[in-house]
Every structure is written in structure tokens, then in C-alpha cells.
Amino acid sequence: MVGELEFEKPIIELKKKIHELKEFTKTADVDLSAEIEKLETRLKNLEKEIYDHLSPWNRVQIARHPNRPTTLDYIELLFENFFECHGDRYFGDDEAIVGGVAKFHGIPVTVIGQQRGKDTKDNIRRNFGMPHPEGYRKALRLMKQANKFNRPIITFIDTKGAYPGKAAEERGQSEAIARNLFEMAGFSVPIICIVIGEGGSGGALALGVGNHIYMLENSTYSVISPEGAAALLWKDAGLAKKAAETMKITAQDLKELGVIDDIIPEVKGGAHRDVQLQAKHIEQALKRSLKELTNMSGEELIRHRYEKFKSIGAVIDEQVTNTQ
């Protein structure tokens, strides 16, 4: 089965067995309703047992699922009158990042996100969701435009990382990312960032300096991939599972560490199981954020963003606090 994950095999096998029994009852004069009911109850219990106790590596696998919804999938379901803009006005257009102007419940917004492909041909076109410098410069152009016309900015993060090739480095990959970080910190409009799949390194952070940062329940956000971390730490990329367990890359870990603001729940088994329902979960989070942030002034939004990132990684000495 396409997109079948290793830990899901018991569920898939049980579903097949239930399907076979149902088909058999249609052609044979045998009543198997009791057996089917027992298996369906067992299936519900099995799904709860597996999906309620996912390991970090399981979540990495779900975040990488080939059928996982992309930025354009969510744009189609969440926004109206989306008008895509192209090019950075310096070099060219990068289809690994999509962006433009749209309306969210009647509010004009700027939407930007990394875009990976759905199949091999599309992945090549989108460079597997790994942006070049012109992609980040296009994003910055659109964000500056949003700031000028007082439109909230919504970003969708879904990339393994910025493209590390020679051409990207020659055109200033690091400078493009650093420029985005610097400029986003000073915009006087609400910025909402949502990690919808993999959030890899600076390539993800270049769209991640926001007032509110959300992660889908089974997404990941990290300075490096589990394979890369394993190769660096233990000289063996095959130990990626071990690395994922120790890196604190899941939404649950990052919420606890204060890196993100909240977790958007996912459909049981992953967002790809029901894209429309998943979009509704994201819609609710966006509505809450916009309601809160649009009541702030430009200066308040900048201060809010500054204090938010300043507090990440801060350690409070409990002993000193208690003695004061």
C-alpha cells in the first residue's frame, strides 16, 4: 500500500481482514456480523493504543508521509480569492515557496509557505520543498508588501531545509535567510506561523518569526534532521530513530519548552486521513490568533514578538527566585 508506515501495519492488516469478511458475506450465505463487530471493536482499541502512544520517530514518519497535505492544499480549503505572486525581482521565481494575497473570512491576508511535490515530477519542479535564495527573497517581498498595506501574514512551514547546493550558496542563501529573520522581527502586522510537516533548520525558521507559532500534532521542528544528527553524533545515519528520541523535535516537546505557542490537533492517524477536517482545525487556530493579534498596535506586535523570542531558552533559577 502506498504510504504505508511500519507501525501502522497491524491496523492495516486488521482493516483488510474486516473488508474481506464483509465481501465474503455478500457472496456466501453466512452471517458473520458478530465476528465483524468484534474485529471492528478490536480495530478501534488498536488504533487508540497505537495513535495515542506515538514515538517521536513515528511522528517523523507521519510528518514525511507522501500524502500529507501541503501548503497549496490548505490554501485552497482555508482562503478565498487567492492570487499567487511570483518572483523576487532580483533573480527569478522559486516554486519551492508559494505566496500571494487572499481573504480569510473577509480579512485580506498575505499567505506564504513552502511547497513540496505530490509525485516525482512535481517534486523536481518544487525542488522537494527546499527553497533557493530567490524563494526567501520572494517571501520577503510579499511580507514587506503586507506590512505596507497592513495585512496580517500567515506562513506555512514544511521543508527539510533550505537547498544546500552550490548555486544557492553563490546566490546568497545564508544572507537571504538572515535577512528574513531580521525583517520579520520588525514588521508591525500580525504574523502567524504554522508548521504543517517538517520544519527543518534555518530553511524553516526563515518563515518562522511570528507572534504566534503553531505546530500540527504530528509535525516536527528542529535545527537538523534525525538522520543528520545521527551522522554527526554517532557517525551513523541509521541511528536516526535514536536521534529523534533525544532531539525534542515533536510538537509536544516544543510546547513544553516554550518554543511554540500551541498544538493544532490532527485527525487520527495523520492529517492525510481527512484533509478537510484538518483544515477546520487550522481554521479555528487562525481565527483565535487573528482575533487576539488584530487588537494590538504595530508597536505592541513588535514588542510581543521580541519578548516571545527573548524568552525562548531562558532559564529561571528557582532557588534565587524563592529567596527574593
From TrEMBL:
Lineage: Bacteria, Bacillati, Bacillota, Bacilli, Bacillales
Gene Ontology CC: one annotated term: acetyl-CoA carboxylase complex
Pathway in which the depicted protein is active: Lipid metabolism; malonyl-CoA biosynthesis; malonyl-CoA from acetyl-CoA: step 1/1
Catalytic activity, reaction form: N(6)-carboxybiotinyl-L-lysyl-[protein] + acetyl-CoA = N(6)-biotinyl-L-lysyl-[protein] + malonyl-CoA
Gene: accA
Family statement drawn from the similarity comment of this UniProt entry: Belongs to the AccA family.
Gene3D superfamilies to which the protein is assigned, alphabetical: 2-enoyl-CoA Hydratase, Chain A, domain 1
Entry EC no(s): 2.1.3.15
Keyword Metal-binding in annotation: no
Function statement: Component of the acetyl coenzyme A carboxylase (ACC) complex. First, biotin carboxylase catalyzes the carboxylation of biotin on its carrier protein (BCCP) and then the CO(2) group is transferred by the carboxyltransferase to acetyl-CoA to form malonyl-CoA.
Domain CoA carboxyltransferase C-terminal: 38-292
Compartment(s): Cytoplasm
UniProt KW keywords: ATP-binding, Cytoplasm, Fatty acid biosynthesis, Fatty acid metabolism, Lipid biosynthesis, Lipid metabolism, Nucleotide-binding, Transferase
GO molecular function: acetyl-CoA carboxylase activity; ATP binding; carboxyl- or carbamoyltransferase activity
InterPro entries, per the entry: Acetyl_CoA_COase_a_su, ClpP/crotonase-like_dom_sf, COA_CT_C
PANTHER family attached to this UniProt entry: ACETYL-COENZYME A CARBOXYLASE CARBOXYL TRANSFERASE SUBUNIT ALPHA (PTHR42853), ACETYL-COENZYME A CARBOXYLASE CARBOXYL TRANSFERASE SUBUNIT ALPHA, CHLOROPLASTIC (PTHR42853:SF3)
Protein's name in the database: Acetyl-coenzyme A carboxylase carboxyl transferase subunit alpha
Enzyme class: transferase
Biological processes, Gene Ontology terms: fatty acid biosynthetic process; malonyl-CoA biosynthetic process
Subunit-structure text: Acetyl-CoA carboxylase is a heterohexamer composed of biotin carboxyl carrier protein (AccB), biotin carboxylase (AccC) and two subunits each of ACCase subunit alpha (AccA) and ACCase subunit beta (AccD).
